[in-house]
Design brief:
The chain is built from eight helices and eleven strands. Helix 5 runs antiparallel to helix 6. The mean pLDDT is 89.
Length: 249
């Protein structure tokens, strides 16, 4: 019998702790197992077709996840970010060099901290949260978007762009995908009409801010000292080179 090839692997803790996944999902355990990168994954990273389609990183992560029966589309965006950082560390080490403001910087990715969620906000283990809009006082129920939700949002925006290239309603369309009920009404038609005709800009902004505040994620930022000596928190640029130092792909 042919010997099965095995690869070293590591278990990665998800920032969500698995609290927002159905019990039937392996993601509900809050831990995912990933194998170390091999030459096969480098082939994925240099695949020009995947790069042009903008899906190269997703295909890379799919190939590294070895926990059985994981539905990649179920992954919360913040958990996917944690997996992405873990993939980089397992593949090419902790030190990540990048250029910002014409200066070279190095961050230790093992020092990146998880942004954990407030577990008291979780009700019945569902990816649903309640928020009373400050101006209108309407209560909405919303969810944190998954990779699958983001793909649906992206496809809808592409369709809208074909209809009107000058104006792309990205903010309102995202609201339509986030909100799952308005004052308890879960009808899609009600939600979309509410966003288009009733949702105030102030309320939409507050809802986005609250969603970002409670979302489990990884803190992909670093302290940057500007010319005046002031420290600023700046996002770490993440590109294909994040997974392949010094590569020109």
């Amino acid at each position: 019998m042919e010997k099965k090839q095995t690869f070293p692997s590591e278990k990665v803790t998800l920032p969500s702790k698995g609290l927002l996944y159905p019990k039937s999902s392996p993601l509900s355990k809050g831990v995912i197992e990933m194998k170390y990168m091999t030459a096969r994954e480098e082939d994925v990273l240099t695949n020009q077709s995947l790069i042009q389609k903008g899906i190269v990183i997703d295909e890379l992560l799919k190939s590294l996840i070895i926990t059985p029966n994981v539905d990649y589309n179920e992954l919360l965006v913040g958990d996917k970010n944690a997996i992405m950082v873990a993939a980089r560390v397992l593949g090419y080490g902790a030190d990540y060099s990048f250029s910002y403001n014409n200066e070279e910087h190095i961050v230790d990715l093992t020092k990146v901290e998880d942004k954990l969620m407030d577990e008291s906000l979780v009700v019945d283990g569902k990816n649903e949260f309640y928020f009373t809009l400050p101006a209108s006082k309407i209560e909405v129920t919303f969810k944190l978007l998954t990779h699958g939700d983001e793909k649906k949002l992206e496809n809808e925006l592409k369709g809208l762009k074909k209809l009107n290239k000058k104006t792309i309603p990205e903010v309102s369309t995202r609201m339509k995908h986030m909100i799952v009920a308005v004052d308890g009404d879960v009808e899609t038609k009600t939600i979309r009409e509410f966003v288009d005709t009733t949702l105030l800009a102030r309320d939409a902004r507050e809802l986005r801010n609250y969603s970002a505040k409670i979302q489990p994620d990884v803190d992909l930022s670093f302290d940057y000292e500007d010319a005046r000596g002031d420290l600023n928190r700046v996002d770490i640029p993440i590109e294909v080179g994040f997974f392949w130092p010094d590569a020109s792909v």
